[in-house]
Write a structure and sequence with these properties.
The protein is an alpha/beta fold. The protein has 12 helices and 8 strands. An 8-stranded mixed sheet has the order 3-2-1-4-5-6-7-8, with helices on both faces. The structure holds NADP nicotinamide-adenine-dinucleotide phosphate.
Length: 276
């Protein structure tokens, strides 16, 4: 799918680097197919050393002639970067933004009519190719653009296209989600420590258990409730633990956490749009 394509990544920071590393490892793209930019001259050596791709501070020359452009600068830099690139980009180039809270309408207003833009929301496990990316399409996106974007983000994990109205939910669930799950891993590890298990062993037990449970859900495609029932022996110990979770309102707390984060994501989108 990506073979023979040229990619420019504007803003090779933490996320840009993770995406490029994933592409170099898991796609047909080679170092000579990918070029990137950073803001400060002092960042050039870092990218060169870690990725070995062509890197510069000149956004306009780097995006020229590329098939796909990933914009991975901070949301507050998007306005300036889009305006800077408007007259060098053509409608033949797919533009993908990973900037949180920046809508496709925001990008389309700043680019030429006809520009195909895709908004993506990856998460930090992308660094270990275990990412989850939610994507949505702008008004000019065609099936081949969707296929290209999927091919890119599947190099760093899994991807799913949703309607843009659901992107705040995606942000709150899978982009913020690792933070909630770290708290759960940390708490389970503390429990192990309380029971006398050394902290390192306890953290391993907790983290690998979370990974295993997630793998069961993804691979078996069974409903999580069914998988939970399979672990819960009548009159066994798991049911006692589950009762404590119910009493502590774990479910409703997690639901409320995601809903609250989505509300905040919506506020941030509105702030971005208002600062047009
Ligand atoms: N990190 C995540 O897990 C994550 C997840 C989802 C979405 N995102 C989104 O991804 C974007 C990048 O996040 P990050 O964590 O990777 O940030 P970051 O590490 O700060 O990277 C931003 C990069 O953009 C470069 N940059 C700044 N202004 C530029 C300009 N005008 N032209 C070219 N490059 C420029 C910076 O260059 P210098 O290095 O020279 O300063 C830096 O390398 C953000 O919009 C964020 O919302 C991140």
């Amino acid at each position: 799918m990506l073979k023979g394509k040229k990619l420019a990544v504007v803003g090779v920071g933490k996320l840009g680097e993770a995406i490029i590393a994933g592409l170099l490892k898991n796609s047909e793209l080679t170092k000579s197919d990918i070029a990137g930019t950073v803001h400060h001259e002092s960042s050039l050596a870092r990218v060169n050393e870690r990725l070995g791709i062509k890197i510069s501070t000149d956004n306009r020359s780097v995006v020229k002639g590329c098939d796909m452009v990933i914009l991975a600068v901070k949301p507050q830099n998007m306005d300036g970067v889009l305006k800077e690139l408007k007259d060098v980009l053509t409608d033949k180039q797919l533009i993908i933004s990973v900037a949180a809270s920046v809508t496709t309408a925001f990008m389309e207003e700043r680019l030429n009519k006809g520009a195909p833009v895709i908004r993506a929301m990856p998460n930090t496990p992308s660094v270990y190719n275990a990412g989850m990316t939610g994507l949505c399409s702008g008004s000019q996106v065609k099936p081949e653009h969707v296929a290209l974007a999927r091919a890119i983000f599947e190099c760093v994990g899994k991807s799913v296209f949703v309607d843009e109205s659901l992107m705040d939910g995606v942000t709150a669930l899978s982009a913020s989600g690792p933070a909630y799950l770290y708290v759960i891993i940390e708490s389970l590890a503390e429990a192990g420590v309380k029971l006398g298990i050394p902290r390192e062993t306890s953290t391993l037990l907790a983290a690998q258990t979370m990974l295993g449970a997630a793998t069961m859900v993804l691979e078996s495609k069974a409903h999580p409730a069914l998988l939970k029932d399979m672990v819960t022996t009548p009159a066994g110990c798991t049911i006692d633990g589950l009762m404590e979770l119910e009493e502590g309102k774990l479910r409703v707390t997690l639901i409320k956490a995601v809903v609250k984060a989505a509300e905040r994501a919506r506020e941030l989108v509105n702030t971005q749009s208002a600062s047009k």
